[in-house]
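Q: I'm writing up a methods section and want to include an example of the input and output format. Could you take the sequence below and give the corresponding predicted structure tokens, formatted cleanly so I can copy it straight into the document?
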Amino acid sequence: MIAADTLVVYGNACRYQDVDRVMRINRNTILGGGRDFADVQAVVRTISHKIIEDHCFQDGHHLSPKSLHSWMTRLLYSRRNKRDKLDVDLVIGGMTPNNKPYLGYVDSRGTALTSDVVTTGFSRVLVEPLIRERQPRHRPFTYVEAVNALRECMKVLFYRDTRSIEYYTIGVCSRDECKIKGPFKAKTCWKIAELNTGF
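A: Here is the clean output for your methods example:
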């Protein structure tokens, strides 16, 4: 699963409030993009051209999450070396051809990692410890546990991050296909704000 809010920030201005930053690439791969959204769109366009090119061969091959992660690592590292880097944080997830879940991260320098839990930006500090604390020790998350953990994380991010919005989408990959669900609204309570006085 990959979750992201629907806000695109331009400088300090909350410019667009209904943008899906989690995208379905194909039936077994999803991508979440952060930082400069124009660069994320350029990456998605490049991926779309590759998918069309692969489709023209008609050999039944589809871009797997592992191969997309590897390609994005090489692409972003190459762009960085040419001093034409794309300012993006990408999270790539999905199901591999042997039906194993895959989750990877690539930043604008081409630094890549794979893990059960991947976060970007401000969420590295705020919600990665929260997810790791809720993660079962000897088994993977169930669907319900994962959704509840993501909902709590999006609520915490909305409370704490000045450049966030309460609406978010979740990309879910199963053995059958990948879907983007939402937008959902974080359930928040601001009653304690009445006690903040004297500023």
